TrEMBL record:
Organism annotation: Bifidobacterium panos
Serine aminopeptidase S33 domain sequence ranges: 87-342
Pfam families named among the record's database cross-references: Hydrolase_4
Top-rank taxon: Bacteria
Protein name as annotated: Lysophospholipase
Amino acid sequence: MQSSDMSSRTFRSQDAVRLIDENTYADTMLNTVRPALASCREEGRFDPSEAERAAGLEPIGGTLHYLAYDAAKFDTEREQGATATFRGCIVISHGFTEFAEKYDELVWYFLLAGYSVCVLDHRGHGKSARDVDSRCLVWIDDWRRYVADFAGFASSVGQRYANGQPLNLFCHSMGGGIGAAVLEQYPTLFDKAVLSAPMIAPQTGMPLWLARALAGVFCGIGLGRKGVFGQVDFDPDAPIDMSLYKDSSEARERWYHRLRCETVEYQTYRAAFEWVRQALKLSRAVLDPSACADIVTPMLLFQAGRDIWVLNEPQNLFVRRVQDGGGTAKLVRIDESAHEIFSMPNEVYQPYLERILAFYDTPLLGGE
């Protein structure tokens, strides 16, 4: 089931994507990538109320921000290395405290490969609706709201950008937990799915049963909208501490930090107790064997060997249960990677990206 061989199947050589040089990363992002993305980008708001009602949830108001990129418009830019073939749409589900614009580099590569891309800011993140006053705090009342919102977005905006071609999923960390639940509850929505270091279960620093009990107690005494003890707000005036990202690409981490400093809506940085409680409920629901057996979408799950934010063993269990239920799932372990595989140096990122593109591009009957 597991594999650390990232070269067994690569994207077709004539379509290979050349990664941005880390030595000129910021200049390339500013002067090449972002102008090209702006030329094909739609910025919009998605009203999730209908999707939430359909899922049996009472809407709590507010709209969700998204960025969408049209491959046909991108083609008019005639970027070097871009394919002339339209392959469908990839919908991205981002991680905890992230935001759509953080994925600009990955969006660039997907566009070069012929895919339109849609990225939703999950509730409480980026420029989407929030339900707490703190700019840094992430709160959610019910994990099922994340799932309903994302499925509603993918089935409307995502399908429009797919334009009759395959609709694929890319999700990371918290977004991977949400994505896994979407695959279980909306089994025909996506044609293929990539889960990158998904939060099948979060790393809490204690046994999950104890974390569930403590989160329940703190929420029960009225601290659900309060930040978890020990976490601090993001300080845009403080320099980035690269010791926290020793395995990652310094150029990429400095770029993300710059984006967060420049935009107050991107400064989510810590969890409310209710978010922790809901993350643990999501984990239990996703790992239910009967739910895993409902997954029919071919799935590729990347596991980071040096992950400190999510647990690896629940990922292994999830893949086994999907397989036991008759689903097509493959786990690829990258021993040398930290949690954000797309933030790693090019020598790790390149084979990871090639594996993703090969998976999306392989016909369903002969896939991974």
